[in-house]
Write a structure and sequence with these properties.
The chain has eleven helices and nine strands. It has about 325 residues and is of the alpha/beta class. The two termini are about 25 Å apart. Helix 3 crosses helix 5.
Length: about 325
């Protein structure tokens, strides 16, 4: 079967990392997240996800389920979800109850994306989990437990999730390596790959997932979504300038010198070494920076090579209005 699709036939979604910018409050950052969700809903974006991170002073999405409720309340029809909940940090029963509550409030609009990484450092993971027994190796068992709580087959069990019991909320497996590709394929679940920061195993993971996929009650055929970075503006010069905030964010990760999202500058010249530049650009190789016309052919090639079913993009742009414009221009690039 030929799975190649023209860009206009590929759904587009958003991952919002709720990054706090310099001189921008947490309150304003979260208001901007809602503003973005409302704006992209009007543009026809498919879903809007937020991610779980902890002990990161410039990321505002740690209470992921709470933020999802805020975003769902402020939107009308777009799917809202987690990209993702780091399941080893939580009791599956609690996640079933939280997302059961969200699904009950906003029927048929909630996605539950699940990852095995801690979303933080080891010390903070221990503070969350209170035990050393909840390593990533237990992720398949925790996932099976969560599925059971959400299943209609759990009606006779001694422990049930209320709300959540029998709601069968759509689950996604998230990954940044090949490990989760095998699991998503085995369970017949949709698979989202974090190529916006971990592109190295993207193509291999996609191949594994499609080759090994087994149909399930949720999904008949494999469904693969890749997350990318996108910075789109009216001119190449403006896009390159806006992207310097993204470059500085990843440079801070490499240097272990985390800062709020910085204001854009004209050029990165003199701000990183050649080695640092190489590392940053490797990590950001799945990034589309330019005008809506200049990124189009590369986008089509990316989707063809990976046989993409859906694209998710994140755009760490400092100025909120410029970020809204970037999402508008990206959607126009997908349509034309």
């Amino acid at each position: 079967m030929n799975r190649y699709k023209p860009l206009q036939d590929i759904p587009v979604s958003v991952l919002d990392l709720a990054v706090i910018g310099v001189d921008i409050s947490t309150h304003q950052t979260l208001k901007n997240s809602l503003s973005l969700a409302q704006y992209v809903e009007g543009l026809g974006y498919n879903r809007f996800w937020v991610a779980e991170h902890h002990n990161m002073p410039y990321i505002a999405s740690s209470a992921t389920a709470v933020l999802i409720g805020y975003l769902a309340q402020g939107t009308q029809k777009m799917r809202i979800g987690s990209g993702g909940i780091m399941l080893p940090n939580h009791a599956p029963l609690v996640i079933a109850e939280q997302f059961g509550t969200l699904e009950s409030l906003y029927p048929n609009r909630i996605d539950l994306g699940l990852g095995r990484a801690p979303g933080t450092d080891g010390v903070t993971a221990m503070a969350l989990r209170r035990t050393t027994n909840l390593s990533a190796s237990f992720f398949p068992e925790q996932l099976a437990e969560l599925q059971q709580y959400l299943s209609k087959d759990n009606a006779a069990a001694k422990v049930r999730a209320f709300p959540g019991d029998g709601l069968e909320i759509p689950l996604w497996i998230l990954g940044s390596s090949t490990d989760s590709a095998h699991l998503a394929a085995k369970l017949g679940l949709p698979y989202a790959f974090a190529s916006h920061f971990a592109p190295e195993q993207l193509q291999v993971a996609a191949q594994i997932y499609k080759r090994e996929f087994q149909p399930s009650a949720q999904l008949d055929e494999p469904y693969f979504m890749a997350c990318i970075n996108a910075v789109v503006a009216d001119t190449e010069e403006e896009a390159r300038s806006l992207a310097t905030s993204l470059y500085h964010m990843f440079l801070g990760i490499i240097r272990d010198d985390r800062k709020p999202l910085l204001k854009p500058v004209d050029s990165m010249e003199g701000r990183w070494s050649d080695y640092e530049e190489t590392l940053v650009l490797q990590k950001l190789s799945c990034s589309f920076i330019g005008t809506k016309d200049s990124i189009q052919s590369d986008l089509q090639r990316f989707c063809d090579v990976l046989e993409i079913d859906e694209l998710m993009l994140t755009s760490p742009i400092y100025d909120h209005q410029a970020r809204l414009k970037s999402f508008q221009l990206f959607k126009e690039a997908m349509k034309s």
